[in-house]
Amino acid sequence: MKLVILGRDGVINEPVDGGVRRPADWRPIPGSLEAVAQLNQSGVRVCVVTHQPLLGSGELTHDDLFAIHQRMQDAVSQFGGRFDAIAFNPHSDAEDRQAGKAALIQDIARRMQIDAETIAVLGDEWNDVQAARSAGTRPVLVRTGHGAATEAEHGDALSGVRCVESLHAFAQRMAG
Questions:
Q1: Domains of the chain, earliest start first
Q2: pTM: predicted TM-score of the whole model, two decimal places
Q3: Sheet bearing 162-164, strands edge to edge
Q4: How confident is the prediction for the chain on average, in pLDDT?
């Protein structure tokens, strides 16, 4: 069984200044939902790990977050896709953010009984790459969201990290 773990904002949906606070704020990146469905149809399980500091600060409720994720699940299902799990980290501190994401990635790998070294973790920010490395997985930087800026800022430190234009481009390469 293959597993891919995706960041949410900047990988699946457009990032929003101040964060996605309501279902109406959630807008998919063109081609991302089709990419999830394509991965699923190729026998790949797809999970999401997302950092949600607004939850930790009380600016977002669990009900709000679950409604946003329901909209995401409903949208991907229109293309025949699904997310096998969605995990979130509510910490607002940068160190807790990276450690929290790494722990969630490791927990998903353990629960699905998949060797972490075989898992690609896609993200658009430097802390996504660091969390994937800390979890012992294979980081992939997408250039959507903040990815192009991350690549420009951390170019040399990205040695050995696969960089792709988008989740859609990643799914195309994986399928073909």
A1: 2-175 (3.40.50.1000)
A2: 0.94
A3: 85-89, 44-51, 2-6, 120-123, 138-142, 162-164
A4: 93
